[in-house]
Amino acid sequence: MKNPAHPGEFVRELAEDLGLSLTDAAVALGVPHPALLDLVNERAALSPDMARRLEKAFGVSRETLMRMQDNFDIAQADKQS
Asked: If you compute the radius of gyration of the chain from its CA atoms, what whole number of angstroms results?
């Protein structure tokens, strides 16, 4: 994949599909609202801790989420070289 999506885009769409505001999603994840905003606005990378929280709260495999982050990071590195 040449332009993989940032995992924050997936998380934003997941919250929308579940009918959750980002505030409600942050509460469900047990994280500060600004931390979730940084992720969904692609200003922060997905951490292993956030991936674990997403898996626990929404049933999305943390391995899949971390692969999304890895693919995004590799594509960004390739663009810079």
From this structure: 12
